[in-house]
TrEMBL record:
CDD domains: cupin_NimR-like_N
Name of the protein described by the UniProt record: AraC family transcriptional regulator
Database matches in Pfam families: HTH_18
Coiled coil: none
Length: 284
């Protein structure tokens, strides 16, 4: 679904309300590349979201949230699995002390509950305790740890061609020489440029892509054996070991936790780091 959660006028309004809070329940959401003068924090209660901003792609689980500063171009590439999402849009002048670059934030229980509380506000005149809660939200966004769950995309068109091909078919196991011939770039240039432009060597980048794709497929309820084969692993035990090394939990436990809505903060992200119905609440 491409319908914005709020109107472009609200998303770019500098007038009251200070925060616009929205919730979304949809089997699939996609939005085209766009920007607005309000800052946006978005995340999920259930399912995953894929976000693109400033030449990077993020696949974000419900343990984390995405911060988009004012006037940064971005798009929602898609949602994955049974989806319940939320967003808050913050006046530009209230974003002065918030992160100036798009980033992924570790979502504290306090921030999650504070945002959830705002969804029930209907009154136009906020009470003192509600104003204090908005201040808490802003402080939590400012101080929340930033984590590296992003998938950086290379800028060189030849490397981007490879990256997009792997995104479409992560099981493609061509080696670096074969990819170089296919894209028309020497092995030496491919190796050097891939590291310089993404921060990962080619092998590391491909493994990170596969792990982020695994999160999508687990959210969609796909069987673990099917996911392992789709991602190009010869045996399921190898896939389970790599997934656990990256996320600190087995794929089966991760999928069960998603299904049962367990506390996401039990999951430790380790080596991955190197609407059909819309309910809008206006908060002044």
């Amino acid at each position: 679904m491409n319908t914005p959660l709020i109107s472009p006028q609200f998303a770019s309004s500098d007038s009251e309300p200070m925060i616009i809070s929205t919730a979304s329940h949809s089997s699939q959401r996609v939005t085209q590349r766009h920007g607005h003068s309000r800052g946006q924090l978005l995340g999920t209660l259930q399912g995953l979201i894929s976000i693109e901003a400033e030449s990077s792609q993020w696949i974000v689980p419900a343990t984390h949230a995405v911060w988009i500063p004012p006037n940064v171009q971005h798009s929602l590439l898609g949602t994955h699995g049974q989806f319940e999402g939320w967003s808050i849009y913050i006046q530009k002048n209230a974003c002065a002390k918030l992160p100036i670059k798009p980033c992924i934030l570790e979502l504290s229980d306090l921030l999650r509950e504070a945002i959830n509380r705002t969804m029930s506000w209907h009154n136009s005149e906020l009470q003192p305790e509600q104003k204090r809660l908005i201040a808490v939200i802003l402080d939590e966004i400012r101080t929340s740890p930033q984590v590296e769950l992003a998938l950086p995309m290379p800028k060189d068109m030849r490397l981007l061609k490879i990256a997009l091909a792997l995104s479409d078919n992560p099981s493609d196991d061509r080696n670096i020489n074969e990819w170089g011939v296919w894209a028309g770039i020497s092995r030496r240039s491919l190796t050097r440029r891939f590291t310089n432009e993404t921060g990962f060597n080619f092998t590391e980048w491909r493994q990170k892509l596969r792990m982020l794709k695994a999160l999508e497929l687990l959210a969609a309820g796909k069987p673990i054996t099917e996911i392992s084969l789709y991602l190009g692993y010869d045996n399921i035990s190898g896939f389970i070991a790599i997934f656990r090394r990256n996320f600190g939990v087995t794929p089966g436990n991760y999928q069960r936790a998603m299904r049962n809505r367990l506390s996401w903060r039990n999951f430790t992200y380790t080596s991955i780091q190197n609407d059909n119905h819309i309910n809008d609440k206006l908060i002044k």
